[in-house]
Sequence to fold (378 residues):
Amino acid sequence: MGVKSHLHGKSGGVAAISTLNWEPDWLAVVWGDGAASRYPAIWLRDNLPEGRHSGNGQRLFDISALPEEIALGDARLTDNGDVGLRFEPEGLDGVFTAVWLHDHRLEPEPEPHQRRLWDKTHRPHEADFTAISRVPEALRDWLTAIRDEGVALLRGVPTQPGIIFEVVALFGYVRETNYGRLFDVVSEPEPVNLAYSSLGLGLHTDNPYRDPVPGLQLLHCLVADSDGGESVVVDGFAVAERLRAEAPENFELLTRHPVPFAFISKDADLRARNPLIELDAAGEVAAIRYNNRSAAALDLPPAVLPDFYRAYRRFGRMLHDPDFAVTFRLAPGDLFVVDNRRVLHGRKGFSGGRRHLQGCYADKDSLESRIRILETGA
Fold:
């Protein structure tokens, strides 16, 4: 086939098409800057704009409805620099804008990884509640810090019970659990969870006995009259990467073997099995699950357990290394958010006076959605 068309200045910018080549199975585009992109015919047919609802963008057909063999019967540049295609055997015509094809290149340059790893020198991003409630740019920057660094602080939040819901409403929705939509972190005589005591809490991620775990945890300080009780946070991703560099065999064990977690009370029997370090398809660390209080008896094969325990202990010691810990004291009106799949949090013990925090959970996808909306100015 090898048909070529040339663009004569009808469209400008990085998405301008210089040359169009096609064969029955492929569309090849050379852009104005000399870069080239290739698109399979089946992929183009699946993403045909005419196959989506004009209002919500949702696809109007199922992949099973497409013909077994799909080929391009024609490809041409339109007068305004877009791409007109004909698909066979359906004889179906459609148009892709040059901008859409450029944005959806199948060989894009790798984007820089958004997340920023940190240690004890890190100073969490701080914002003012009134500012993020009124200024979209301030909200965007605060949410972006949570997304990229896993933790951020908020000052000036009224010490009104339940006001934490207004913070969540700025980006998403509360994730309700057996603890309710809202939980009060205060010392109780017979605590159902050690968080409801005056004891110090070791570094941990919350609810590893759930699948999926809550993506975000928010804690809002209402009263802080006690001595002690400082909050501690650690970047689990940074520690996991250090473990990968220093002891790759330990890292591999913790990613390969799922472990059991459990929480049992008179009202709940929650159990889940997942690795302490979870990887994504690209091998990047995607989640940390570490909660000594909620870890059930390990049930790995006996031959694996000795080496696994060595790796587990090493990871635990690294997580508690002061070189990774950021410590701060919450005052009334302060609130902090952690990415519960990344950042471990804990607190030091406290005594005398009253300490009252309110907390809730939310999911991270809504936060990321809100960032994208704010970035486009919608």
User: Anything to note?
Assistant: The longest strand covers residues 216-224. The CA atoms of residues 117 and 238 lie 5 Å apart.
